[in-house]
Structures are given as structure tokens and as C-alpha cells.
Specification:
By secondary structure, the protein is α+β, with helices and mostly antiparallel strands. It folds into two domains: about 160 residues, Sandwich (Jelly Rolls); about 160 residues, Reverse transcriptase/Diguanylate cyclase domain (Alpha-Beta Plaits, 2-Layer Sandwich), CATH 3.30.70. It has ten helices and 14 strands. Helix 1 packs across helix 2, helix 4 packs antiparallel against helix 5 and helix 8 packs across helix 9.
């Protein structure tokens, strides 16, 4: 079995050191043992040590915006990692986890800096090797990291987007509401919140089919897109429920936009084109009920704003559906 000195000689970053220098370094290294799947450190942890893999396999991963973990690097015997957090004095930028049972050697940053001061010639040999290895590592992984960034952005897009309509989903809306309201307060501009339901959607789903129901949702979403601005946010909140955020828009202006949406949705001929043999001939038109509330006209906090929009939507349904009701009419 190789001795600790033999192992250090086999580590590329220490390859230029003489026996005396290796012995001095060996006295500063601390052993660690990890079980398979055990986490050594997590993304965001303080970075205080450089590690060398003596045996086993290590995985380095990052967390994407949607919470998924993506492995970006792996290390085996003789590899080192963790140096960047020491030199940059920043938290760990990734998570380190043992893929197999591992033995590691660590060099604490205090010992490393002392070594740099007390043995500059020896430290210089290590640093030259370390920089060369790190440069090659970055070059070799540059293309992968670029792909990873693009993949991560795509994952983020998927995480906040409804797959059927391409509109935002409930997750995005719940995250964005506070931000939109904060910007409205800071700018002194109004913000309109709209809650919209497709009328009799359950009967459409059951009387025609779920596939036809999906087609109705997609067709309605296209109408929403035509009338809303890029600065607006349209989200499918769930099923046939939609929510719009219209920044820098007063209630009267928003009501005009919503009335145009209501009218265009009503002209969709999808159900009429199915013919009278359809199982639910009573529902021939696609219509919407919409509730509108505006900050600061109808509410000055998010909870009240949502309650007012929801109450306006409920009132629209009470009045016979296929209409827009503002919180002022409650």
C-alpha cells in the first residue's frame, strides 16, 4: 500500500516538491473519510479548505432555479478542488458529495496562507502547478459550462411557464406579485390585478372532451397575448383560471383592454365548428368572467388587492358571466 509520502508525490499539484517539502506539507494536511452520498459541503457554505482526493470519487453539482441539481464536475484520486473559495474569500459556489466511499486530505486556508509566507519557494511550486491545472480545467469545461448556463436558463423558463399555453404559471405569479406591487409603490404608478375564468369550462370538458377543453384554453390564451403588452404578465393560475398583472395601468384603461379580450374570446368558433352532434350542444360559445382590482384605487396592499379582484370575479359570475366587473362596482 502506498505511503502518504508516495501518494503526495503522485498528486500533480505537488509533483515539483522535494521530499523535505512534502514532509512539511504532510504535517499540515488533515484526513477526512466520507461515506457514499455523504455531503462534504453545500453551495453557499463558507469556503475554508482545499481538498485532495486520496481515494474514491467526488461529484460537484450546482442547484438550478427550478431546484434541480446538475452535476458539473467529478474528481478522483490525485485531484484537488475547493481552492477558489479560499482565494476569492467567497462562499462555496457548488455542492460537493461523495459518489463512493472516499478518503480526502484537506489543507485549511490558515495553514495554506502560513505556508505561503513561511515557505514561499515551496508554495510557489504548488501555485504554479495549481494555476496550470485550474486553467486547463476551465478550458476543458468551458463549452460544457456554456451549455449548462443555457440549459439552466431553459430549465428556469420551464419552471415558471405553463406547458400547455406558454403563459406564466402559478409559481411565477406568486413570486412576481410582491415585486410588481413594490415597483408600483416606488414609481407611484397604478397596478391592475385581473382574475379571469372561462365560463362553464367543466361542462365543456365533460361534454366534449379534455382534449377539446385544452384546445379552448390554448385558443383563449392566444387572445390574451394579442391584447396584453410585453410589460404585462399573464399566468394560467390553474385549470381554466387565469390572472393578469397590468403595471402602470389605471382601472378604466384596464377595463377597456379586458372588454376587448372578452369580446374576442366570445367570437372564437371552436365549439360551433364541432357541429350539433357534440355531446354538449348547450355550450356553443366560449366566454369569460373577469374581475378587476387596481392599486391604489381599490386596495393598498396585496392581500386586499387579491380579495377585491376575487370578489369582482365572483360578482361577474353572479350577474350571468361573460362580463368584466371592477372592484368599484361591488
Amino acid at each position: 500500500m502506498p505511503t502518504p509520502m508516495d501518494f503526495l508525490r503522485s498528486v500533480r499539484v505537488f509533483a515539483d516538491l522535494e521530499s523535505r517539502e512534502l514532509r512539511d506539507l504532510l504535517g499540515m494536511l488533515r484526513p477526512h473519510a466520507l461515506e457514499a452520498d455523504q455531503v462534504l459541503f453545500r453551495e453557499g457554505d463558507a469556503g475554508g479548505e482545499l481538498f485532495v482526493v486520496e481515494a474514491g470519487s467526488i461529484a460537484i453539482s450546482v442547484t438550478l432555479a427550478d431546484g434541480q441539481s446538475l452535476e458539473i464536475a467529478g474528481f478522483g484520486p490525485g485531484d484537488f478542488f475547493g481552492e477558489m473559495s479560499i482565494f476569492e474569500n467567497e462562499p462555496r459556489s457548488a455542492t460537493c458529495q461523495a459518489k463512493t466511499p472516499c478518503r480526502l486530505l484537506s489543507l485549511h486556508k490558515d495553514d495554506l496562507f502560513r505556508y505561503l509566507t513561511e515557505s514561499p519557494a515551496s508554495a510557489g511550486k504548488i501555485m504554479r502547478r495549481m494555476l496550470a491545472v485550474t486553467r486547463r480545467r476551465l478550458e476543458d469545461t468551458g463549452e460544457f459550462l456554456s451549455d449548462m448556463v443555457q440549459w439552466g436558463e431553459e430549465a428556469r423558463r420551464r419552471a415558471i411557464t405553463d406547458p400547455l399555453t406558454g403563459l406564466y404559471n402559478r409559481r411565477y405569479l406568486d413570486e412576481a406579485l410582491e415585486e410588481y406591487l413594490m415597483k408600483a409603490r416606488e414609481s407611484g404608478q397604478p397596478l391592475c390585478l385581473v382574475m379571469l375564468d372561462l365560463d362553464h369550462f367543466r361542462e365543456i370538458n365533460e361534454g366534449y372532451s379534455q382534449e377539446i377543453g385544452d384546445e379552448v384554453i390554448v385558443a383563449a390564451a392566444e387572445v390574451f397575448r394579442r391584447h396584453l403588452r410585453k410589460s404585462d404578465a399573464a399566468a394560467r393560475y390553474g385549470g381554466d383560471e387565469f390572472t393578469f398583472l397590468l403595471p402602470a395601468t389605471d382601472a378604466a384603461t384596464a377595463a377597456g383592454v379586458l372588454e376587448a379580450i372578452r369580446g374576442d374570446v366570445e367570437t372564437l368558433s371552436l365549439l360551433e365548428e364541432l357541429g350539433t352532434e357534440a355531446a354538449a350542444p348547450r355550450i356553443r360559445r366560449i366566454t369569460t368572467s373577469q374581475g378587476l382590482a387596481c392599486f391604489p384605487e381599490h386596495a393598498r396592499d396585496l392581500k386586499t388587492l387579491r380579495e377585491q379582484a376575487d370578489a369582482a370575479l365572483y360578482r361577474a359570475k353572479e350577474l350571468g358571466r361573460n362580463r368584466v366587473v371592477t372592484a368599484s362596482e361591488l
